[in-house]
Amino acid sequence: MNIYLSFGSNVGNRQKHIEDAISELSKNNIKQIKKSSLYETFPIGPQQRKFYNLVGKFETNLSAEELLKVLKDIEKKIGRIKTFRWGPRVIDIDILFYGNKIVNLKKLVIPHKEIINRLFVLYPMNEISSNFVHPSIKKTIKTILKEFLKNTDKICKS
Fold first, then answer.
1. Is pLDDT of 62 > 70?
2. What pairs with residue 2 in β-bridges?
3. Are the beta carbons of 40 and 17 closer than 8 angstroms?
4. What's the pTM value of the predicted model, to 2 decimals?
5. Structural domain boundaries enclosing 58
6. Alpha carbons 66 and 69: distance in angstroms, whole number
7. What is the mean pLDDT of residues 26-50?
8. I need a surface site. Which of 32, 86, 93, 138 has the fewest CB within 10 A?
9. CA 119 to CA 12: how far, in whole Å?
10. What backbone torsions phi and psi does residue 51 show, to the nearest 5 degrees?
11. Cβ atoms within 10 Å of 9's Cβ, excluding its own
């Protein structure tokens, strides 16, 4: 199964934390296919250090639920501590897409519901898979990004 994951870090050695997370994936039956450039972005939450973000395409035989467990274990191993919503993070790994499947469970929603609102996901995702079609809204990442930027431009010019 091809999957897309996003990585973010704004505590300590941000780049190393992301690289360590990607390295841990290979030890857990998750093979890297492609990854985006590293992007430095502003945080959504309260004032804090900028994030480094990256999106990667991977392949795995794990179920969506097994994948989530592995990712949470990797986050803990690298040093993530639960703080508060949109707070600083040593590492944050999100499942963006799990093939073309739609998953709606209590603890897991795929595609990630905030993809269409996050430039720090859309830009790197567009870099590596601009023609990937979002399975819920049936639009390519390239189109979603273009529409987001167009709407942002309207808001800024009002």
1. yes
2. 59
3. no
4. 0.91
5. 2-157
6. 5
7. 89
8. 138
9. 23
10. -95, 155
11. 29
Tally the domains of the chain: 1
Q: What residues are labeled active site? A: 80, 89, 92, 94
> What single letter denotes the amino acid at residue 40?
E
Dihedral (C-alpha) 19, 21, 26, 31: value to the nearest 10 degrees?
-80
Q: Residue 50's domain is classified under what CATH number? A: 3.30.70.560
Q: Which residue did the predictor score with more confidence, 12 or 3?
A: 3
Average per-residue pLDDT in the chain? 90
Structure tokens at 64: 């969506």
Report how far residue 77's alpha carbon sits from residue 69's, in angstroms, rounded to the nearest whole number.
12
How far apart, in whole angstroms, are the C-alpha atoms of residue 108 and residue 17?
23
- Taking every pair of Cα atoms in the chain, the longest distance, rounded to a whole number of angstroms, is 50
Q: Where are the beta strands (DSSP E) in the chain?
A: 2-9, 30-35, 39-41, 51-60, 92-98, 103-104, 109-110
* Window from 33-47, 64-78, 99-113, 128-142 with minimum mean pLDDT: 33-47
